[in-house]
């Protein structure tokens, strides 16, 4: 058989096979693996340049992976200043816009953006303002979004209240937008009702440092004071504003021989559970949109 004859026979066999597949109902389908991915989970935090402070994100990510084994977990920072500073140090992190672009490039169709902010404030609101492109997205609320959340947070941090010295809860606060301090004030009322040696202060805005003198009076009697960060990360505010050696740090203003400090909220399993309950609600909403 000539070379040309062999080519013609092969083409005829190929055509016959194609007809047989069509008649039997067999079709070659496009790989839909990319469209079958479970929704991605993006944990969205302000971020920190503190090396020690960033360790908490590993703890939170690991907890999320255990709770959501069928979903890929991503971390995004909202502070471009933090992202830029880390990049200059060779530490690779992404902002939220970059993270969403990566998800789309990897074929995700849906995502839950879970805020890791403490209160539903200015930084939390910025999350929903980032364009999501082709992604269907829902948003998990900040930690203290409802009165029920505030009571749950107070219960979760109750174990951090010291028995032998006054306890000062360290919050951030917002001096530019006082309405965003309402959740902090509600938390202060709730936690301070549990003990007359418990106080809540803020780095800026309300509740401010008004209760620090009373905490100092009790600390002088006890010879010690205990701080509890009502913050996800123990970054610059805790390391410097509270525990620093400068004369205007909270530790220096109280001026007692011993100052102890609890770990930040990200290490508290009860706090993570509140975030994850909000994530569950957002995931349910996303499934409802898809259905």
CATH class of the largest domain: Alpha Beta
Strand content: 5-15%
- Cα separation of the termini: 60 Å
Estimated helix fraction = 40-55%
SSE class: alpha/beta
Kindly state the number of beta strands: 8
Low-pLDDT ranges: 1-34
Radius of gyration: 27 Å
Quaternary structure classification: single chain
What CATH architecture label of the largest domain applies?
3-Layer(aba) Sandwich
**What do the pLDDT scores average to?**
89
Helix segment tally: 11
Shape: elongated
The CATH topology assignment of the largest domain is Rossmann fold
Largest sheet: 4 strands, parallel
Order of helices and strands: HEHEHHEHEHEHEHEHHEH
- Provide the number of structural domains: 2
Keywords: Cobalt, Metal-binding, Signal
Binding site for Co(2+): 172, 204, 237
Organism: Syntrophotalea carbinolica (strain DSM 2380 / NBRC 103641 / GraBd1)
Pfam families: CbiK
Can you characterise this structure?
With 291 residues, the chain is α/β, with parallel strands linked by helices. The chain has 2 domains: 37-144 and 269-290, Rossmann fold, CATH 3.40.50; 147-265, Rossmann fold (3-Layer(aba) Sandwich), CATH 3.40.50. 45% of the residues lie in helices and 14% in strands. The protein is built from 11 helices and 8 strands. The strands form 2 sheets. The protein has a 4-stranded parallel sheet with strand order 2-1-3-4, sandwiched between helices. Strands 6-5-7-8 form a 4-stranded parallel sheet. It is elongated, with a radius of gyration of 27 Å. Residues 1-34 have low confidence and may be disordered. Keywords: Cobalt, Metal-binding, Signal. Co(2+) binds at residues 172, 204, 237. It comes from Syntrophotalea carbinolica (strain DSM 2380 / NBRC 103641 / GraBd1) (Pelobacter carbinolicus).
